[in-house]
Design goal:
The chain has 13 helices and 8 strands. By secondary structure, the protein is of the alpha/beta class. The protein has a single domain, classed as Rossmann fold (3-Layer(aba) Sandwich), CATH 3.40.50. Helix 5 runs parallel beside helix 6, helix 6 runs parallel beside helix 9 and helix 9 crosses helix 13. The longest helix is centred in the C-terminal third of the chain and has 22 residues. The relative contact order is 0.15. The protein binds NADP nicotinamide-adenine-dinucleotide phosphate and 2-acetamido-2-deoxy-beta-D-glucopyranose (2 copies). Keywords: Oxidoreductase, Signal.
Length: 347
């Protein structure tokens, strides 16, 4: 009897097994990147956070389709290692590194002006870089770090590459950075239409809050979990508003959830949380499987022309949360983000 009692699993083990089973069941995606024939010869793509996890697998796939593949990474060492790995695996020599730290608006501006100056076209922008588990902290630019990394940096990046700004200040800043002989290109994505913007969000957006006071740390969302959820909600809201603004330009914008994927995303958590995460790893999607829904939005025939939508981790059109579908909220967040990034002049 004693022995049986000791053997019967405690409740948390049961819960864990149930979770494992659930994860296992949702691993397979009905859409297989390898079966998609899309070829990107002559096209240029940018993948942010492309040195690990989902981003690296997405970049690998796009490079295999012969795209000029720009890995936008914050670390030269990690970025260059990924460039070499992808070049070796795909035989595509046009895989390059450009430094980008999405948590810094200055870095985003420098990256965008280099791209506008040196790249003749841009067909796909994948906003993948993201963090979770970081403590609440304000960057030297006065932004909260998780919000800057996951949301506001990518917001500015997307707008600069689109040429969406109306502020003369921004134009002037860029103009000074450009060599006098080069033409000021401000519409890289639009000029390359049909082009696609793809935002890696998460199913976790559904419990987020889109309070723009979070962006500068004027309000604390209450922990990294809430912060992460809220950045992922903002990703979906912005995709919707961008799509609305891009109507008729031939540039589409969609958001997606990769599912629960075994990557290094948990690196900032305590050892206990990471240990628990590790137990579940074998049941999760691999980074390669987790990349499928992003690749689907970036290249598939099925997603061509679709805009302002949210795809689930099985590459199916899904309805995001009610807050994520609130057009007024999306517009409010957009306007606050424009002011914070200097995309509109404040007089
Ligand atoms: N894994 C999941 O279960 C899951 C679920 C839902 C959504 N997602 C989303 O998927 C995306 C990719 O995550 P992942 O799971 O592949 O995690 P990952 O392996 O940790 O990859 C994240 C990538 O983003 C980069 N990055 C982080 N901060 C950056 C910054 N300030 N500037 C530039 N790059 C930065 C990282 O670069 P460093 O190496 O320099 O840190 C890394 O390359 C994220 O947006 C994440 O929110 C993941
Ligand atoms: C996603 O898309 C919007 C526009 O749709 C962009 O401004 C936003 O910053 C992008 N990136 C993320 C990670 O949300
Ligand atoms: C964030 O979202 C996840 C999944 O939707 C949820 O389990 C978690 O409780 C949320 N965290 C907060 C603080 O809202």
């Amino acid at each position: 009897m004693e022995l049986l009692g000791a053997l019967s699993p405690p409740w948390w083990l049961l819960l864990l097994s149930l979770l494992a089973l659930l994860l296992w069941a949702t691993r397979r995606s009905p859409w297989e990147p390898r079966k998609c024939p899309a070829d990107l010869t002559g096209k240029t793509v940018i993948v942010t956070g492309a040195n690990s996890g989902i981003g690296k697998c997405v970049a690998m796939d796009l490079a295999r389709r012969n795209a000029r593949t720009i890995l936008a990474c914050r670390s030269r060492e990690r970025g260059q290692a990924a460039v070499e790995e992808i070049r070796a695996a795909t035989g595509n020599p046009a895989v390059v590194l450009r430094l980008l730290d999405t948590s810094s608006l200055a870095s985003v501006r420098a990256f965008a002006s280099a791209v506008l100056r040196e790249e003749p076209r841009l067909d796909v922008l994948v906003n993948n870089a993201g963090v979770t588990g970081l403590p609440f902290a304000i960057t030297s630019e006065g932004l909260e770090q998780t919000f800057a990394t996951n949301y506001l940096g990518p917001f500015l990046l997307t707008n600069l590459l689109l040429g969406e700004w109306r502020g003369w200040g921004e134009l002037w800043r860029l103009w000074r950075l450009l060599p006098a002989h080069s033409l000021l290109r401000t519409d890289l994505l639009k000029a390359s239409a049909p082009a696609r913007v793809v935002n890696v969000s998460s199913f976790r957006h559904s419990l987020g809050t889109a309070d723009s006071a979070f962006l500068t740390g004027q309000r604390n969302p209450g922990g990294y979990d809430a912060a992460y959820n809220s950045t992922k909600l903002m990703n979906v809201l912005f995709t919707a508003e961008l799509a609305r603004r891009l109507q008729g330009t031939g540039v589409t914008a969609n958001a997606l959830s990769p599912g629960v994927v075994s990557t290094s995303i948990m690196r900032h958590f305590s050892w206990a949380v990471r240990a628990l995460f590790s137990l579940l790893r074998p049941f999760m999607k691999s980074a390669e499987q987790g990349a499928a829904s992003t690749i689907f939005c970036a290249v598939s025939e099925e997603a061509a022309g679709i805009t302002g939508k949210y795809f689930d981790s099985s590459c199916r059109l899904a309805l995001p949360s009610a807050a994520a579908r609130d057009a007024a909220l999306a517009r409010k967040l957009w306007e606050a983000s424009e002011r914070l990034t200097g995309l509109t002049e404040q007089h």
